From TrEMBL:
Enzyme's top EC category: oxidoreductase
Residues holding NADPH: N56
EC numbers for this chain: 1.5.1.2
Organism: Actinoplanes siamensis
NCBIfam families: proC
InterPro entries from the UniProt entry: 6-PGluconate_DH-like_C_sf (IPR008927), NAD(P)-bd_dom_sf (IPR036291), P5C_Rdtase_cat_N (IPR028939), P5CR-like_CS (IPR053790), P5CR_dimer (IPR029036), Pyrroline-COOH_reductase (IPR000304)
Catalytic activity: L-proline + NADP(+) = (S)-1-pyrroline-5-carboxylate + NADPH + 2 H(+); L-proline + NAD(+) = (S)-1-pyrroline-5-carboxylate + NADH + 2 H(+)
Gene: proC
Pathway: Amino-acid biosynthesis; L-proline biosynthesis; L-proline from L-glutamate 5-semialdehyde: step 1/1
Function, in words: Catalyzes the reduction of 1-pyrroline-5-carboxylate (PCA) to L-proline.
Protein's name according to its UniProt entry: Pyrroline-5-carboxylate reductase
């Protein structure tokens, strides 16, 4: 384990997931710092995790690894605050959707290494998918450090930075699509006359079981779906409706829209 201190700058939902994941993996609390915009949030984090909550400037001076957990729209302001305190021997890890590492490099001292990571909310249960990319000035050693930070949260993969907007559309936003599907299927259960709690239990276990098979069997999803789809049976009747409603085309369009929005965020960032 690295001897660095990690500071989470902007400890909202994702920042807290990084903090709690590191603590779960045995990272000492005295090598973690957190920053928060609202004092009440800072007090909550200090109480819950036993980490020091400090200002952004102090965190930037004390920590070797700076994990930026603010919304992309707030990153410019944050970098304006910390830029003068950062030295090029730090590692900056961006959690921000859309923003390229050049956005950070332009606001930090020359030579500061930046790694871009797109993780997702299943980090809360140790099941995140975190995609890590070496950005400006980042070496293999910096990428290895980032992998060490994100491994406690779930799976990690190292990809070139140009793929990050697509990753954001797939796995960053991905949990929301599955939740939407689950929500709609539970409502369908209610439509068919099942009590809501029963529909909820059926769909949650079906989702968990299907995900486990998809991951653990190593089979292609087509093969798994075909095994459920009996000739002249119930499943094919449902699938015909899904195809009639263009669900596949909707998914292609939806993920392309998410990718485009990531690009737009980068263009709008100041
Ligand atoms: N929510 C999600 O599922 C995912 C979010 N992301 C990215 O993670 C980042 C954080 O997203 P969330 O955690 O959802 O947002 P959030 O709004 O929960 O957290 C951001 C936090 O930063 C704080 N903040 C803003 N400016 C600050 C400043 N100058 N100093 C200190 N704290 C400051 C805010 O008060 C807030 O608590 C975003 O850049 C987002 O694109 C990435 C993957 C998934
Ligand atoms: O919706 C968003 O912009 C963030 C990034 C990926 C998931 N949530």
């Amino acid at each position: 384990m690295t001897k660095h201190t990690v500071a989470v700058l902007g400890t909202g939902k994702m920042g807290e997931l990084v903090l709690s994941g590191l603590l779960r993996s045995g990272w000492p609390a005295d090598r973690l710092l957190a920053t928060a915009r609202r004092p009440a949030r800072g007090a909550e984090l200090a109480e819950k995790y036993g980490v020091a909550v400090v200002g952004n400037a102090e965190a930037a001076e004390r920590a070797g690894i700076l994990a930026v957990g603010v919304k992309p729209q707030d990153a410019g302001t944050l970098l304006g605050e910390i830029g003068p305190r950062v030295t090029a021997d730090r590692l900056v890890v961006s959690l921000c959707a859309g923003l390229p590492t050049t956005f950070f490099a332009a606001r930090l001292p020359e030579g500061t290494p930046v790694v871009r990571v797109m993780t997702n909310t299943p980090a809360l249960v140790g099941q995140a998918m975190s995609a890590i990319s070496a950005g400006v000035h980042a070496t293999a050693e910096h990428v290895a450090l980032a992998e060490e930070l994100f491994r406690p949260l779930g799976s990690t993969v190292v990809l070139p930075e140009y793929q990050q907007d697509a990753v954001t559309a797939l796995s960053g936003s991905g949990p929301a699509y599955f939740y939407l599907l689950a929500e709609a299927m539970i409502d369908a259960g209610v439509l068919l006359g099942l009590p809501r709690q029963v529909a909820h239990a059926l769909i949650v276990q079906t989702a968990a079981g299907s995900a486990a098979m998809l991951r653990d069997s190593g089979e292609h999803p087509v093969k798994l779906r075909e095994a459920v789809t009996s000739p002249a049976g119930t499943t094919i009747a449902a699938i015909r409706e899904l195809e009639n409603h263009g669900v596949r085309a909707a998914l292609l369009d939806a993920l392309e829209a998410a990718r485009d929005r990531a690009r737009e965020i980068a263009n709008q960032a100041i």
